[in-house]
Amino acid sequence: MTALATLDDVAAVSRAVPEADETRVNRLLEMVSANVRRYTGLTFDVVAGDEVTVTPHDGELRLPQWPVTAATASINGVAVDVEIGTSGLIYRLVNGWRRPWSHCAVDVVYTHGWDAVPDDIAMVVAEVAAARWNAADVNPTQITGSRSQDVAGYSESQSFRLPAEASEAWSAVHLETLDSYRPPKAGSIRVT
Questions:
Q1: Domain boundary, last residue among 112, 133, 167
Q2: What residues make up the domain containing 74?
Q3: Measuring CA to CA, which residue among 80, 26, 70 is closest to residue 47?
């Protein structure tokens, strides 16, 4: 899967990426994008013809990926009329009216995803990747050291600099943005 941000996005939130660092920053963008996909549970890419079997919960059928742009559904091979809602919800239509889903397996073929990565997601990915990339340059608490070795009159020495741990991957603002893309938790309370 492609990165959810570009080198231009990193430059917009940090500084221009020198050609010598482009490979490293592109890899950071890919890794951060994978973390965003894992955290939100969304691919963000447009996927047509995705097939899933879903069991409705409390009369609602929520698909695992959104936004949904097209969907067909069937129960035991019999087509069901549907209406696309928000955040992955699809509604069952009976004579043009929304009706609750029964608790049975529903086969759905659907298209989902964004034509372009949402700007706030691209910004989160770019900011985290830029923070990792810039950590060694801006962090004054770098670990420095040297190593020396003498062997039969021959002396060898090395100096090294390791970046200190970059700041927390997801700030509170990042988490707020990412959480807005996570589907609501399935659950219900029944009062009798």
A1: 112
A2: 47-112
A3: 70
